[in-house]
Backbone:
């Protein structure tokens, strides 16, 4: 069974960098049949796609975040990482990692439980 | 603002049928997926592609598309179906987009 688990600081100061890790079990981030992505959800609001990355390192990011975001893979640890620079209060959200099938890259078929990140001084 | 539009809230009587809709220009060309999210939980994929259900999703959930509108239909709604439902797809630039979500109340 595929499981994803996000981890990282729950509090980040404005202008600093948000860094999260997603540990995958039951599948491999080196898989040639899945992308690995991040989605976030501000409190009480809808979902916002952040981006995704393939095993080869090719990535696709939300244009509104592209200048600040980096998604990477650590195949030795079977982890996905998210890095978001110069954060503001608007980046406060629950951050989810998710698996994206190659056969339909519009869908997110497995999700982590999410981790709340608050941006505040 | 989201490129996919959903009604904020919908209600249905227990055991009745409810349709939740999602509108957007990109839906004329691309299928949408639907996610069920219960309070404090991560979204769960319930419908994708041309009315496909992942393993474990009850067959009372179905999807359809007409023009720029996609619909999630729950036939015989159960109390456990009360949740927020999000639609998702892609836009013409290959970005992924979500609707604002519809809160379903089962009366």
Residues:
């Amino acid at each position: 069974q595929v499981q994803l688990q996000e981890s990282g600081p729950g509090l980040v100061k404005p202008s600093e960098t948000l860094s999260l890790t997603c540990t995958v079990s039951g599948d491999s981030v080196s898989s040639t049949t899945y992308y690995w992505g991040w989605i976030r959800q501000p409190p009480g609001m809808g979902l916002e796609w952040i981006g995704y990355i393939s095993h080869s390192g090719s990535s696709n990011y939300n244009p509104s975040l592209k200048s600040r975001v980096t998604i990477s893979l650590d195949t030795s640890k079977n982890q996905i990482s998210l890095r978001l620079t110069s954060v503001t209060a608007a980046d406060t959200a629950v951050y989810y990692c998710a698996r994206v099938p190659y056969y339909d890259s519009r869908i997110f078929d497995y999700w982590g439980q999410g981790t709340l990140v608050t941006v505040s001084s | 603002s989201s490129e996919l539009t959903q009604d904020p809230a919908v209600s249905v009587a227990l055991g009745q049928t409810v349709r939740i809709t999602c509108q957007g220009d990109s839906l004329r060309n691309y299928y949408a997926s639907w996610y069920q999210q219960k309070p404090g939980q991560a979204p769960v994929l319930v419908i994708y592609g041309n009315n496909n259900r992942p393993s474990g999703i009850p067959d009372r959930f179905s999807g359809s598309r007409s023009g720029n509108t996609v619909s999630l239909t729950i036939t015989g709604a159960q109390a456990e179906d009360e949740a927020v439902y999000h639609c998702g797809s892609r836009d013409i630039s290959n970005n992924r987009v979500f609707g604002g979500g519809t809160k379903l109340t089962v009366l």
About this structure: Chain B is about 0% helix and 45% strand. Chain B touches chain A at residues 2, 30-33, 35, 41-45, 48-49, 54, 86, 88-90, 93-101 (CB under 8 Å). The two ends of chain B are 31 Å apart (CA to CA). The mean pLDDT of chain B is 95.
